[in-house]
Amino acid sequence: MRRLVRGFWGPREESVEELADRWAATLDRLALLLPEAALPGQWDMAGASGGPAAPLSTDTDSLRAALQAARAADDWAKGTGTALRLTAAGAPGWTVEVSGLAGGDSEFLLQSLVIGIRPPAGAVLPAAELLTAVAEFWAPDFGDVTDDDVLDALEDEAGYGVGEPCVGRAGYLSPARGELVPDDLTAPRAALPGGGLLLDIAPEGDVDTVVRAFERLRESGALRPLPRPMDRATL
Fold this sequence. Notes:
Blueprint: E1 3-9, H1 16-33, E2 43-45, E3 54-56, H2 60-72, H3 77-80, E4 82-88, E5 95-102, E6 111-118, H4 127-138, E7 142-147, H5 148-158, E8 170-173, H6 175-178, E9 189-191, E10 197-200, H7 207-220
Antiparallel strand pairs: 1-6, 1-7, 2-3, 2-4, 4-5, 5-6, 7-8, 8-10, 9-10
Helix pairs in contact: 1-2, 1-4, 5-7
């Protein structure tokens, strides 16, 4: 099953240079955390309009050039953000895709970084470390480690809607959201050095605990959406 490590935030206009630094740090960390899957220098960049993928070096200069080209090709990039999608096929059975939409100032469209991982059967992912990397390098408003079973359960049982703040087996909440986490939520929590809170909610397969935690966090206000139109990146 595909696992997702995600971070979302509101409008935050950024230069290509700033985005390239974030991307380079993220890919370097992935190579350390998933050496079987995200091998250094083994990334392909998805082609525009469904075209063929092309190899991409993960050094900052190459990423900057790729982002500049993506921004130049999209007349709406200033508002929507600059999109980049990279894939890696490492050891047999592993695939990783990293998709980002960042640097935009839209008042209605969330910016995002999503890591999709398909591991071989039995592989254990460093979920907390992966989400910590997203939090550290992208300073999101909220983030999670999730999968299709969790998302389906949240939609069916808790009324979750796509684009709303969410938690999965693990969750990240920005500092203002972290202050709203209720004391009676029993999930272990850790404050991250750069700010925000990491929640270890449930092991893989325990969907019911995730749903209950989501409902409690929503009740407390920790998962309330950013106001629309959005005027800031985080709550």
